[in-house]
Amino acid sequence: MAVNVLTLNNFEEEVLKSKTPVIIDFYADWCGPCQMMKPIFHSLSDKYVGKLKFMRLDTEKDEFLAMKFRIQGIPSLVIVKGNKEIGRIVGYAGEDPLKAKIDEILEEI
Predict the structure, then answer these.
(1) Strand pairing category for 53-58 and 22-27
(2) Pairing relation of β-strands 76-81 and 84-90?
(3) Is pLDDT at 88 greater than 90 in this prediction?
(4) CB 82, CB 16: distance < 8 Å
(5) Structure-derived torsion over alpha carbons of residues 72, 75, 76, 82, reported in degrees to the nearest 10
(6) What amino acid positions are annotated as catalytic residues?
(7) What are the phi and psi torsion angles at 76 (to 5°)?
(8) What is the 8-class DSSP label of residue 52?
(9) What per-residue confidence (pLDDT) applies to 64?
(10) What angle do CA 109, 52, 3 make, to 5 degrees?
(11) Alpha helical stretches, state H, the chain
């Protein structure tokens, strides 16, 4: 499954109107842990086809959305369903711990 780029221009269509929960990776190109998380995020996207939509948002290019979600540290992963945040994971995590955290959040919805 592909990881798509999220911007202010496609936020409504990709997140608010999505029938599937969305996980947004808030990152910046200069952030070392964000770059380490990128291949893990892409790998996990293949494991959640049809269950979770994977999006990445560059906090340097779309500061408004980062502020809207009150992002204070990156990498931050925010899981959204409709217009409601249902989970948040802050900081770098390896693939297995990250998958466990995502699964835990998804079990609650």
Answers:
(1) parallel
(2) antiparallel
(3) yes
(4) yes
(5) 120
(6) 31, 34
(7) -130, 130
(8) -
(9) 94
(10) 155
(11) 11, 32-45, 63-68, 95-107
* Token pair for 105: 């959040």
Q: Whole-model pTM? A: 0.95
Q: What does the CA dihedral 83, 84, 89, 91 come to, rounded to 10 degrees?
A: 50
Say which CATH topology domain 4-107 has: Glutaredoxin (3.40.30)
Res 1 pLDDT > 80: no
Domain ranges of the chain: 4-107
The gap from C-alpha 20 to its chain's centroid, in whole angstroms, comes to: 13
Strand-strand pairing, 76-81 and 22-27: antiparallel
| Residue found under tokens 């693939």 | 95
* Terminal-residue alpha carbon distance, the chain: 22
The SS3 call for residue 89 is: strand
The label of the residue with tokens 């711990």 reads 97
Cβ atoms within 10 A of the Cβ of 55, count? Answer: 24
